[in-house]
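tokens incoming
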């Protein structure tokens, strides 16, 4: 779909689609950067559409970049994301282009964004959240009999590279086994469905499957009260990264963002930041808005359920937001699932800053309850594994 320009010869991993010539405008085009996967491109087009609806006179280009993390399919994820630059392998190249003005915004899954951004960049807006939950996707060989975790055959292997997912499931389903599975959503589904697949099922984010139009693959939605699984910080929300000093683009994005999602996700991210967790740290969260006219998840527009399975009665949109309370549930689990610390807090939240304060307060409570010991142990083990890796490499 994207046609290459001669510019790309210098940077072959970047593809710029032809600019549409239909809109007449005096403004320069808005270049929207994203990763190259099918899901990333759908997400970028969704944001482009919202911007087009709000600002039809502007021209938009979607620029896709093959991220370092997508190129290296061999090194285990946990090693790829080690150290200072954790996760920059997903965003580093795009961020350089944004800083240099080749892009005007980057559409990210908020979940994949580091909690600290380079000082020249900031989050321009957070879009309304898709369903934030993790889901179980079952192998076609089992899908007529096993539609949930509890009914999978004993000793089944679940494909996931996420310590958060594996650790939480080990805690509740000690007979399940876990194995790494890498790649984009489509690649993972292909590995699950292969004739010689070692996996009985895999765990994915609902949001990705829903955006890809693959809802029919979802066997079970997981949450605290269904499978005992809390999702990742920021899961299901798209965030748009911009140059911190780009007032024009920031003003445009104000039309696209959701205050409800921004508050919920800011609480989650402040919690993660305070615990200094990288993407592989097993912290699970759930946020719900309670009270006011509706009982709702961080999901928006309101779906027909809350994360606890209670029906959502009425959607009073953003208006009732200040009268509602934000419920934040969290869990920190050891890798083997044997130790865990959980806490829940509910508070009225009237701004992103208040949401961040709540996230930090929850982090303090988790630390008082012993979460720091779990996290320190994981960090020691990671350093040990990295040292071993270096020793092996230098032999
Ligand atoms: N780790 C990759 C990733 N980053 C964001 C999503 C899902 C979409 C979202 O959270 O918005 C996924 C796929 C998955 O975890 O199944």
């Amino acid at each position: 779909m994207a046609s290459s320009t001669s510019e790309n010869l210098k940077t072959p991993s970047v593809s710029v689609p032809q600019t549409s010539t239909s809109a007449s405008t005096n403004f320069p085009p808005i270049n929207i950067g994203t990763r190259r996967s099918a899901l990333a491109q759908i997400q970028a087009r969704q944001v482009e559409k919202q911007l087009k609806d709000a600002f039809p006179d502007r021209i938009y280009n979607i620029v896709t970049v093959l991220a370092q993390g997508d190129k290296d399919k061999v090194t285990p994820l946990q090693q790829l994301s080690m150290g200072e630059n954790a996760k920059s392998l997903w965003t580093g190249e795009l961020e350089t282009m944004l800083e240099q003005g080749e892009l005007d915004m980057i559409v990210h899954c908020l979940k994949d964004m580091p909690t600290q951004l380079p000082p020249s960049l900031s989050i321009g807006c957070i879009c309304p959240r898709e369903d934030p939950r993790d889901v179980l996707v079952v192998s076609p060989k089992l899908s007529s009999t096993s539609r949930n975790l509890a009914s999978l055959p004993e000793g089944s292997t679940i494909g996931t590279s996420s310590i958060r997912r594996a650790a939480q499931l080990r805690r509740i389903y000690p007979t399940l086994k876990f194995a790494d599975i890498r790649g984009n959503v489509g690649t993972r589904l292909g590995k699950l469905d292969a004739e010689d697949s070692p996996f009985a099922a895999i765990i994915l984010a609902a949001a990705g499957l829903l955006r890809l139009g693959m809802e029919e693959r979802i066997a079970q939605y997981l949450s605290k009260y269904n499978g005992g699984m809390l999702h990742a910080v920021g899961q299901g929300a798209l965030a748009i990264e911009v140059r911190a000093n780009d007032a024009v683009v920031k003003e445009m994005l104000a039309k696209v963002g959701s205050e409800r999602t921004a508050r919920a996700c800011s609480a989650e991210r402040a919690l993660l930041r305070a615990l200094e967790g990288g993407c592989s740290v097993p912290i699970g969260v759930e946020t719900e808005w309670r009270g006011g006219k509706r009982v709702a998840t961080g999901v928006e527009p309101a779906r027909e359920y809350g994360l606890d399975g209670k029906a959502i009665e009425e959607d009073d949109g953003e208006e009732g937001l200040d009268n509602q309370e934000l419920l934040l549930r969290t869990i920190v689990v050891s890798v083997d699932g044997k130790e865990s610390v959980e806490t829940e807090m509910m508070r009225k939240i009237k701004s992103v800053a208040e949401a961040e304060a709540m996230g930090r307060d929850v982090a303090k409570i988790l630390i008082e309850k012993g979460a720091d010991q779990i996290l320190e142990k994981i960090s020691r083990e990671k350093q040990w594994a990295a040292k071993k890796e270096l020793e092996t490499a230098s032999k």
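note: Confidence is low (pLDDT under 50) at residues 1-12, 80-87, 298-305, 311-316.
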